[in-house]
């Protein structure tokens, strides 16, 4: 563990950054939670990072809702529940990866702002819906398959 901490400290002390910093980081911070500016006025990188944040924020809330709905390892009886729990850990890692990506882009002050109480409740209850409502209809599976 000490070796891993040393490697982490090295990367924290020598962070990787973009060769060309964002043109206007304040534009990202002004828009990443709620759009204030006209999207056409933003440069492409800022617009892309803003969209990624908005998508990741919803994913984060969905993962949190599922985390609370899926039994923990100690209380998992079915193999599917254990696999679901491990999969959710992986999904939390995606949010961490995106957070690191923002730091690489020079955006060190990104906060993962919770959604509104109504949206939060929707994400809490969505994983509790019966499988037949959450499963994709057969015709969608055929189109994607």
Description:
The protein has 145 residues and is mainly alpha-helical. The model has no long low-confidence stretch (mean pLDDT 87). The longest helix is centred in the middle third of the chain and has 26 residues, at 44-69. The chain has helices spanning 2-13, 25-31, 44-69, 79-104, 117-125, 131-134, 138-144.
* Head-to-tail CA distance between termini: 43 Å
- What's the tally of helices? 7
Structural class, from helix and strand content? mainly alpha
Give the rounded overall mean pLDDT. 87
Give the gist of this structure:
The protein has seven helices and no strands.
For this entry, give a set of tags:
mainly alpha; about 140 residues
List the helices and strands and how they pair.
Blueprint lengths: L1 H12 L11 H7 L12 H26 L9 H26 L12 H9 L5 H4 L3 H7 L1
Helix pairs in contact: 2-3, 3-4, 3-5
